[in-house]
Design goal:
The complex is a heterodimer of chains A (294) and B (398). Chain A has 294 residues and is mainly alpha-helical. In chain A, strand 1 and strand 2 form a beta hairpin. The termini of chain A are far apart. Chain B is built from 15 helices and 15 strands. In chain B, the strands form 4 sheets. Chain B has a 6-stranded mixed beta sheet, with helices on both faces. In chain B, strands 8-7-9-10 form a 4-stranded parallel beta sheet, sandwiched between helices. Chain B is globular and about 60 Å long. Classes of the chains: A mainly alpha (294), B alpha/beta (398).
Chain lengths: 294, 398
């Protein structure tokens, strides 16, 4: 069967690859959405945190012989702690000011972290292999799918929906959501709001680091790997609606698919299609697809 | 908000004024502009600057009784930045020669501005053969390699192995187009066929989708008409998707730094066309050792080319007794270049520095005795065969 001059199996395989990329977008934009939702900070250092997740994983393997599976848990914790330090020492002081200050601070941090690592490791990056258990590929009939990519989709979707569940369906999530609406009132009920924001930032950053670990065996681990991705992820967040949890997950996956199809039909546009969609969405729904106007 | 705007404006002003010192007649100034921070930074970048510094130091630091000064800038792979920086250097700082590094888009822009101001522009690292053809100038020298030489190395090497059908993965800008076009010429001329092309944006991170299209074409060779970080990620993904089992990868432009970054396991068997390799002979090893002590990595052909071309320029200034662009160009065209970079190299009227090129194959993991010793020589391509014959050059000012 042919669709637009392309066999359905080829189309299916491209959609599957789009889903892999979409999983990265989803988990990264989810972290951004959580942070923006509660802290009102546009976290420009999200790409750097993604990169740190990957580089910490590489370092642990290289210098201490710690394997991928351990790092899948450990890297988010390490990078999450770095995030907590950043929030406590720096970001905290900017909450009362305009959004722009948080954006500039996190942007500056990104340049700093990337610059330092680039001068140590260079721009062409480091190679990290997939763990033994996930190496190899499965023949799906219409394509050969590397097992590792399947794992990326499965694990990031699991983490995304677990996060969604915690925020939307549990009491901790209820505090979080209440805090977004009215922090003063939440504090009046005896909730330690500053601690909550710190942990939320740490968690958002840990999500970025987690996807960094997932990405390490796929793309070259390089100081620049985050900045290549982060602009698209910002577009995803804007399209989904700033701060909307489900919105960022669904939009991330959806845009991955759209981008995948663009790569087949008109590859030259694959780096811009997301932004074209962003423009259209903003024209008709300024708050994004899943956002509510305030 | 207002305060932010003011502080941003101040920062912007500071950034602009820091580079602009008035022209100093007591010094000969060399400008060096390249990608210092992006995907090509390891090919040239800080290492390229270090190589130029080494050349200036080896030359003695002075020429015509004046101190040699180096200014450098990061063009961030943007042609507009390259052009405006070049203009600023020439107009305000009195720079007498510009060395340009990686990225063809920026190279074409810089070359144009330099020629307009009658300043010499020497490029190491940009591929596009347009620099010495349609867009050549009387002041432009293309030193280390061009896309024709790369095609005559890797593409011809593959054809010689009997691999005739190709699919290209092409970086979507001047360099990728030139490389694909020049390789296609070689392929067609030797009885091969190009079955398809995917153009990817510069600095793409995911190549899987293009690779599946390449595989579906059933071509024998996957031609990578890209460079640096893009080549690295292409090769990595090709291994992951098992493309390497059915297709042979021809990296049309592979640097030793790429091989190092990809890792020998994934890079083994790749063909690489190089103008220079650090482990060629005693002279190259000696330079490499000195460079390694400073940068902790082995030099690429571009970085070696930076050293050699700086020496060539300074020698010409000394011999001509002036840094007047026309006289120095004349002097440079007269001499044969014999140094650690090349033997009997010469600069043609169209600006091409004609010299031997080498086709290497990346060793298997068991063959690599120590880090950075990655290549084994397949063939030496004599300069006259590597670069397009002068008679075919589309350069106007012949």
């Amino acid at each position: 069967m042919e669709i637009f001059g392309l066999s359905s199996s080829a189309l299916l395989s491209q959609l599957l690859l789009g889903l892999v990329n979409g999983s990265f977008y989803a988990i990264l934009s989810l972290g951004l959405a959580v942070i923006f939702g509660l802290l009102n900070v546009i976290n420009f250092s999200h790409g750097a945190m993604f990169m740190l997740g990957a580089i910490v994983t590489w370092m642990a393997g290289q210098y201490f012989g710690i394997n991928y599976w351990v790092m899948l848990l450990l890297a988010p914790i390490i990078v999450g702690l770095i995030g907590i330090v950043i929030e406590r020492l720096l970001l905290r002081h900017l909450y009362q000011l305009d959004h722009l200050y948080g954006l500039l601070l996190t942007f500056g941090l990104t340049l700093f972290i990337e610059g330092v690592l680039r001068s140590i490791y260079g721009a062409s990056g480091l190679s990290y292999s997939a763990p033994q258990a996930l190496s190899g590929a499965t023949d799906l009939g219409f394509m050969i799918l590397p097992n590792y990519r399947a794992w990326v989709v499965a694990s990031s979707l699991t983490v995304c929906f677990a996060t969604w569940y915690v925020i939307e369906k549990t009491s901790i999530g209820a505090y979080l959501r209440a805090g977004t609406e009215n922090p003063k009132l939440v504090q009046a009920f005896g909730v330690n709001f500053p601690l909550m924001t710190t942990l939320t930032y740490g968690f958002g950053v840990a999500l970025a680091a987690f996807s960094g670990v997932l990405a390490a065996p796929i793309i070259q681990v390089s100081p620049l790997m985050g900045s290549n991705l982060i602009i698209i992820v910002f577009a995803v967040v804007v399209i989904g609606g700033m701060g909307s949890i489900m919105g960022s997950i669904v939009t991330g996956l959806g845009l991955g698919l759209v981008e995948g199809l663009t790569k087949v039909f008109y590859p030259e546009a694959s780096s811009t299609v997301v932004f074209a969609i962003m423009v259209i969405v903003l024209l008709f729904r300024p708050a994004g697809l899943f956002g509510r106007e305030k | 908000m207002k305060r932010t705007l003011i502080s941003m404006a101040v920062a912007a002003l500071a950034a602009v004024s820091s580079g602009a010192n008035a022209a100093d007649p007591s010094a000969v100034k060399i400008g060096f502009i390249t990608d210092m921070s992006g995907l090509y930074a390891d090919i040239d970048g800080q290492g390229g600057l270090e190589a130029i510094k080494m050349a200036v130091a080896d030359f003695g630091g002075n020429v015509l009784g004046k101190k040699i000064e180096i200014v450098s800038a990061d063009h961030q792979n943007k042609a507009d930045i390259a052009a405006s920086k070049t203009r600023e250097w020439i107009d305000q700082d009195g720079v007498s020669v510009i060395f340009g590094g990686t990225n063809s888009g920026t190279a074409l822009a810089t070359s144009k501005v330099a020629a307009e101001k009658k300043r010499i522009y020497i490029n190491n690292g940009a591929g596009t053969s347009a620099l010495t053809n349609e867009q050549c100038t009387p002041y432009t020298i293309h030193y280390t390699y061009d896309t024709v030489a790369l095609a005559n190395g890797s593409a011809k090497g593959m054809m010689d192995k009997g691999l005739k059908t190709w699919y290209f993965l092409t970086a979507d800008y001047a360099f990728g187009y030139a490389l694909e076009k020049d390789a296609t010429n070689v392929i067609n001329a030797t009885g091969g066929k190009v079955l398809g092309t995917s153009k990817h944006p510069l600095n793409a991170s995911d190549f899987s989708s293009y690779l599946l299209q390449a595989q579906a074409s059933k071509a024998q060779v996957l031609g990578l008409a890209n460079a640096g970080g893009d080549t690295i990620n292409s090769v990595k993904a090709a291994n992951e998707f098992g493309i390497t089992k059915t297709m042979k990868i021809a990296g049309l432009l592979v640097f030793i730094s790429d091989v190092h970054a990809i890792g020998i396991q994934n890079a083994q068997g790749l063909l690489a066309t190089e103008a220079w390799y650090w482990d060629q002979n005693d002279q190259t090893r000696q330079f490499a050792k000195r460079y390694f002590e400073k940068m902790k990595r082995m030099p690429t052909m571009v970085q070696a080319g930076n050293y050699s071309s700086t020496m060539t320029y300074l020698n010409a200034v000394k011999a001509a007794g002036t840094n007047d662009s026309d006289k120095v160009m004349q002097q440079m065209r007269k001499v044969k270049i014999n140094d650690m970079f090349t033997k009997n190299g010469y600069i043609r009227k169209d600006g091409t520095m004609v010299h031997d090129m080498y086709l290497y194959e990346v060793k298997t993991p068991s063959e690599v005795e120590s880090p950075w010793k990655y290549y084994k020589l397949v063939a030496t391509v004599p300069g006259e065969k590597a670069f397009a014959p002068e008679a075919y050059s589309k350069c106007m000012n012949k």
